Predict the structure of Glycerol-3-phosphate dehydrogenase.
Amino acid sequence: MATTYQHSPTQIAMIGGGSWATAIVKMLCENNVYVHWWMRSQTDIAHIIHYRHNPSYLSGVEINLEKVNPTYDLRKSIAEAEIVVLAVPAAFIADVLKRLAIDDLKNKVVVSAIKGMIPIENSLITKYVMRKFNVPASHLLAIAGPCHAEEVALEKQSYLTIGGQDIDKAQQFANLLKGRYIKASVVTDIDGVEYCAVMKNVIALACGIAHGLGYGDNFHAVLVSNAMQEIRRFLDVIEPHPRDLNGSAYLGDLLVTTYSQFSRNRTFGSMIGRGYSVKSAQLEMKMIAEGYYAVKIIYEINKKYKVNMPITKAVYHILYEKALPTAEFQLLKDVLK
């Protein structure tokens, strides 16, 4: 009888304890991996170890503790890993990474699962990691959708796109995510998928505001169609690259984020449209809407490039200049085609 050999599991550090991190852990555990799962809440860590569920997010997902080690030791979790996945909200990731020394990420493949940018620095996550930790571009990857954590938890058919300059590394990571209900493909346009993941959250805010104001499906469709053109104009100027924006990582991710009941950015926007203040909407949601931070960053970046971006401009005015949503959308509807 022939002897079969099982390869050693790929060692992965998952940084973050939210819903998307939980969903990715679930996907990875379908394959031959071992996950060192860092999160800031020691209470949640203790709960997972005892009950095998994340008490704060996607509590219906059972955590396979034979493949997962929940931990509060950030540097140790990274030291033992070949691949480091960042899944902390963009507004907080810089503070988490401050705990690391430059050499902590040496020879690691770093994957951004963050759909946002570093505030103040106005930087993509992968660009920030490259600059702060000297991680070469060939060791950086980004996860794009269209994929909601809630549907992963329900094991509904889902699709991911892995962006990376090194297509082999991207494919290797994609293979670790594939499973019964997950398909994963790769593209070399890492900057494009990152920017698109950021901007689709801004558009989801706009769609939510429109919904809160009482606009219907007809307007929503026109808004999304114009948004795709706005994204194309911006990407063509800031990151020229041969890309098909009709692909799943671009148009698909935009559609699911602007239409889905699970979209926290759409939900946040809808609350603003119904009259909530930004602060009251944030308090009631108890979850981060990345688009709130993203719209300010994109707006500030565009001061240099001066791309025509009426949707981004309208959302920025509403959220940061306290413009009336009714007035902004009255202006916006006249420039959409």
